[in-house]
């Protein structure tokens, strides 16, 4: 399962350890949530300014956010590319992740891992519009993190 990681920001350092972690989290999310075994996911690290623009353009929300998911499998099935199912892109503001990790009192790595799990679950059709959906998604996120030793 290919996970492509692209760092488009320079405000928060991104090392090999973080890249390895997010690849594991994406794989665990796909496995635990029953995603296709041949899935390809793109993880993109950005800053607040970049994600603010995306949030305004695609969601009509004029402020930065922590994570955005752009699913490619919504609606009509897409043709396979090289035998892999292209699930979509998960865009994460590392500036916001750093701030939130401090606010929530846990590590930056755990916060980024949570955002990756959250974003990949969105690509797989999970949502949090209702209380029931929110609870189901939160349970899945926490199970993913627990499997990787990142539980609260």
Number of helices: 5
Named at the architecture level, the CATH assignment is: 3-Layer(aba) Sandwich
How are strands sequenced across the largest beta sheet? 1-2-4-3
Note the main sheet: 4 strands, mixed
Named CATH topology: Collagenase (Catalytic Domain)
**Overall pLDDT, averaged?**
91
Q: Count of DSSP E strands?
A: 4
Query: What is the CATH superfamily?
Result: Metalloproteases ("zincins"), catalytic domain
Supply the number of structural domains. Answer: 1
CATH C-level category:
Alpha Beta
Q: Which secondary-structure class do the elements indicate?
A: alpha/beta
Q: What is this structure, in a nutshell?
A:
The chain is of the alpha/beta class and 152 residues long.
Give an overview in words.
The chain has 152 residues and is of the alpha/beta class. The protein has a single domain (3-147), classed as Collagenase (Catalytic Domain) (3-Layer(aba) Sandwich), CATH 3.40.390. Helix content is 48%, strand content 18%. The chain has helices spanning 16-32, 48-59, 94-104, 108-123, 131-147, and strands at residues 3-7, 39-46, 67-71, 85-93. Strands 1-2-4-3 form a 4-stranded mixed sheet. β1 (3-7), α1 (16-32) and β2 (39-46) form a beta-alpha-beta unit. α1 (16-32) packs parallel to α4 and α1 (16-32) packs across α5 (131-147). The longest helix is centred in the first third of the chain and has 17 residues, at 16-32. The protein is globular, with a radius of gyration of 15 Å. The two termini are 27 Å apart.
């Amino acid at each position: 399962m290919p996970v492509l990681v692209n760092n488009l920001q320079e405000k928060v350092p991104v090392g090999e350890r973080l890249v390895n972690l997010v690849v594991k989290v994406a794989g665990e999310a796909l496995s635990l949530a029953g995603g296709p075994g041949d899935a390809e996911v793109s993880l993109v690290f950005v800053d607040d300014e970049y994600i603010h623009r995306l949030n305004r353009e695609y969601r009509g929300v004029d402020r930065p956010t922590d994570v955005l998911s752009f699913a490619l499998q919504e609606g009509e099935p897409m043709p396979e590319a090289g035998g892999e199912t292209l699930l979509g892109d998960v865009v994460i503001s590392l500036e916001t992740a750093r701030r939130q990790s401090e606010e929530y009192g846990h590590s930056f790595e755990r916060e980024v891992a949570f955002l990756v799990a959250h974003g990949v679950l969105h690509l797989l059709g999970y949502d949090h519009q209702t209380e029931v959906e929110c609870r189901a998604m939160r349970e899945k996120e926490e199970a993913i993190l627990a499997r990787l030793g990142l539980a609260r």
